[in-house]
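Q: Here's a chain of 297 amino acids. Please give me its 3D structure as tokens.
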Amino acid sequence: MRSFSELISLAKAKGPRKVVLVGSEDREGVKALKFAFDEGIAVPVFVGDEERTKEILDEEGLKGEVMGASSSEEACEKGIRLVNSGYADIVLKGLVKTSTLLKAVLNKEWGLRSGKILSHIVALEVPAIDRIVFVTDGGMVIRPDLPTKISIIENAVSFLKSLGYEKPKVALVAAVETVNEDMPETLEAAVISKMGQRGQIIDCEIDGPLGIDNALSSFAAEVKKVTGPVAGRADLLVVPDIASGNFLGKSAVYFAGGKIAGLILGASAPIVIVSRADSSPSKLASIALASYSLGEQ
């Protein structure tokens, strides 16, 4: 996949999905849904403060089904139940705390549990790279151990396959592309890479440790004599911890003039959490990413 424009076109071709905005008295969330509705990607449903939501909808020129809720907890429960029942397809976080929303997602009775770990993935479009690059996990798991990192990789690979990547190229990135006993992330990368070679991690080409330069740039890989199916051609960057992933995503936007879209993976439906600081194209791309990942209706 080359660009967010391509992503949006692909999502449009599959038709609109029903997106529930949880905590719908959120102007930024309403604006994000309006972009998606205007592009033919989303049919909006709103759950939250009914009076305030209708005021915002009138001001923003958007219509949709509104379901009242007297608290954030009630809004989260109602919204998640709508997706659990199949009435809606995608969760979009509005004016509720992320922790409150995720508590509802993980409810054993009516939540969206799938048995997988919840992890975060972002898609980055930057002028210097000829393709969309995905990064995980810069938003959920603070400092994953080896088994957790493998689960994060499995979530991300499954997601990329849902987008049409037959065998994603996965780079385990670190500060250096050689194993260094003083850098635990390079040791873990080597172990995971070996697991991939032995078929313990499937459906992807995986290698590491790789520096971010030789993971993304064929020229850098050639200069440093780093070879393999992933070097210079990575689709997915797996970062050591939440800080490095967070810095990488925001640097792509604020240093490189890129665009970012993100989702929470591991639930039985996509969960979109957009930042108030995200640009309009980024918000639209996040919803398109969720929509397209669901496949044919």
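Q: Can you summarize the key feature?
A: The longest strand covers residues 42-48.
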